[in-house]
Amino acid sequence: MKRREFARSMMAGLLLPAAGLFPERLQRSLWIAVLLPARATGGASTSFASGVEMGKEETLRAAALFSRGLGFIDASYTPAADLSAIVSRVKAQGTVLLVSALEEETAELSTLCDSARLVLLNGAARTDSLRRSTCSDFVFHVEASESMYRSAAQSVAIPQDSVALWSPALEKYGAAQLNDRYAARTGSVMDASAWAGWMCVKIAWEASIRASSAESRQIADYLVRESTAFDGHKGAPLSFRKWDHQLRQPLYAAAPVSGGRVSEIPDVAMASGSVMKLLDTIGDPLGMTTCTKGKRR
Amino acid sequence: MIRIALAAFLLVCSAIPATTEAQRSQLLFVSNEASKSISVIDTRTNSVIRTIGLGHRARGISVSPDGRKVYVALSDDVPMKETEGDRIAVVDVASGNVLARYSSGSDPEQFGVTPDGRRLYSSNEDAGTASATDLRTGKVIATMIVGIEPEGVAVSPDGRWVYVTAETSNSVSVIDTRTNKVVSSFLVDIRPRAAAFSRDGRRAYVSAEVGGSITVVDATRHQAIGSISLESGEGKPVGIVVSRNGSWLYAANGRTSTVSVVDLTKGTVAATIPVGKRPWGITLSADEKYLYTANGLSNDVSVIDVASRKVVDTIKVGMRPWGVAASK
Which residues 235-264 of chain B have a CB within 8 Å of chain A? Predict the structure, then answer.
């Protein structure tokens, strides 16, 4: 393409400009804290931790390719611990993003992160109120909401506990490769919690490098930008809803359907129009949010 | 003595028709992932004239610069481990014989051959590396760490640079072929698959399957400079090919079963052509009158008339066709 023609195309808005999508160099190092329940010796927390570890390994490698500084701070929580002290400590250590596997404590954590201006990526709590009344400009939900699980189950007439965030039986859209990488690393299958841990770290790193920033405000703004999208090996571009900061994503029938294939809800492969609109058919619609903070609605 | 002379004469005679045939008509080579073979198509009749069994999943495919060999990336079903099944097969165009199987690291998927025909660069999806193979010795001479889940490989027309896309890290690693080192990396749109250079080497293009776009790259500076949205972002581009004059790019949109015709002078989609199911591989005929797509779910190849932008023929091939390459 000739330079003059290319410039004309850019001016006409035919080519999207590079700013934001392909940013300039990031000057400051990025610090990500990972908050796990203490004594994570089995179940979802252990899987989440394993997913986080794979995410760390891969993002550190990507950071090296781009000569970017990236570090992780591990924090653990016990019911006796002071959550406020943990948030203060990781903030003092330079953290701008916090990845969390906590569940019941997420409402308190959201309030603390909002005050501390730390971006929180919730990887475990499904509670709808976190997306409605207890909201923050700095809190984002990678785990799906109760509302999403409920409407996904209703749409295909299966029990709600048969709907999952991820399945180790997935193959399409590079899911097989992701499942294989995880299995080779851990000796276990990648379950929903492991995917959530891995995805939280991936989002944290990509948001920073794409926003070309290690500042929490700029990263939070980037996360709700209309053009922002992530690839979670689910076949669709995943993005955060502006109104409830919930990650738009397909869910899965936990048991493979006939033919051994896992059915996705909604069926992204069959989408004939906007995938984003299709993904918005599960979970809270815009009108459901009671959040009045910041830039919502 | 007479017997030897007669045998030599017969050998020469038997070689002549195949070679002449290959020279007269253009051949297409289609890698079939599930049936682990190559279908050879005569483009005069648009029919399969030969099927070459390879024994392993066949994916990336390319014809050597001199037109005499076809290279095919083979891999096994054992993830995360290099085995005898992970090879680059070298097929003789004239005879259809497999001449060699070169090592090329774990799970080779796509590759590019330097214009001098001396080296082959492949992406090793499992290992997160790219390998450089010396095509004279068949040995791997360098292994380079690239992005996470590497996929597409393109060699610049002057042979100096190799671009390797990586699906998970959304990056392109730039390899300097003089040193066989990664000298730079840049971000592209999400889930990059294939890369292709313009013939003058000034631009490169990278398809982003989940992003639904083509990233435009200034290949003189190795920097992404823009993005062209396909089908309002709902296109799912995988394989791409650029016309010789640099004005047109054709993208095979796997999941939407279409080909986007992109006018690179305007940065817009000029036409969308419905083809078979899940086209991934795409190539142009030598005269650029026809486009061919390998359609993985309908097990066929669509033949598109470039001028009318219509499918004019469909050719049944093996199971799950992946890539397609045209003879020189």
Answer: 246-247, 255, 264
In this complex, do A174 and B268 lie within 8 Å of one another by their Cβ atoms? no
Task: Compute φ and ψ for A43, nearest 5 degrees.
Answer: 75, -155
* DSSP string across B265-318: TTTEEEEEEE-SSSEEEEEE-TTSSEEEEEETTTTEEEEEETTTTEEEEEEE-S
* Alpha carbon distance B294, B41 (integer Å): 12
Residues of A in contact with B247 (CB under 8 A): 1
As for the ipTM of the complex, it is 0.86
Question: Strands B47-53 and B213-218: what pairing?
Answer: unpaired
A15 interfacial to chain B (CB closer than 8 Å): yes
Nearest CA-CA distance, residue B325 and chain A, Å: 24
Per-residue pLDDT of chain A (297 residues), as tens digits, is 344 443 443 333 344 433 344 444 445 689 999 999 986 556 778 999 999 999 999 999 999 999 999 999 999 998 888 999 999 999 999 999 999 999 999 999 999 999 999 999 999 999 999 998 878 999 999 999 999 999 999 998 899 999 999 999 999 899 999 999 999 999 999 999 999 999 999 999 999 999 999 999 999 999 999 999 999 999 999 999 998 999 999 999 977 655 566 689 998 877 777 888 899 999 888 777 777 665 454
**Interchain CB distance below 8 Å, B190 and A210:** no
pTM score: 0.89
Specify whether the backbone of A157 is left (phi greater than 0), alpha (psi in -120 to 50) or beta.
Answer: left
